[in-house]
Design goal:
135 residues; 60s Ribosomal Protein L30, Chain: A; six-stranded mixed β-sheet; 28% helix; globular; YjgF/YER057c/UK114
């Protein structure tokens, strides 16, 4: 396997540098995206839950774009939330349209007790355009 190839969005928020991780890594024709939260540019969460979820998806879109991908390239989604009863209805009302045409990606949703001040996080795996290692 070759070296890791990191992907960054055009305007990364502060959490990547603050906590020392890459937004995404390209490997073997796939893009492994770190968990995306509703972080503002300074790394703080959006106070409104709906805005936090929307910003997490916007942050995901920016990371995908950094690799030349779109939400339609996502094949697997993992959702983490500290408040499933509030987040999941909100999520399921809007998320299918985000991914594009069917079939939708595989999805796992998990309730957790801690997300460093956030209530929602999503982690995805996407296929890279033309099964390439670099964008």
């Amino acid at each position: 396997m070759g070296k890791r190839s990191a992907v960054f969005p055009a305007a990364p928020h502060a959490l990547y540098a603050e906590h020392g991780y890459s937004p995404a890594i390209r490997a073997n024709g796939l893009l492994f995206v770190s968990g995306q939260v509703g972080a503002r540019s300074d790394g703080t969460p959006e106070p409104d839950l709906a805005d936090e979820v929307a910003l997490a998806f916007a942050n995901l879109t920016a990371v995908l774009a950094g690799a030349g991908c779109t939400p339609a390239d996502v094949v697997d989604v993992q959702i983490f939330t500290t408040d499933p009863e509030a987040v999941l209805p909100l999520l399921f009302a809007h998320h299918p349209a985000y991914w594009g045409d069917a079939p939708l990606p595989a999805l796992t949703a998990t309730g957790v007790t801690w997300l460093a001040g956030f209530r929602f996080e999503l982690k995805v795996v996407a296929r890279l355009p033309d099964n390439g290692e670099t964008a």
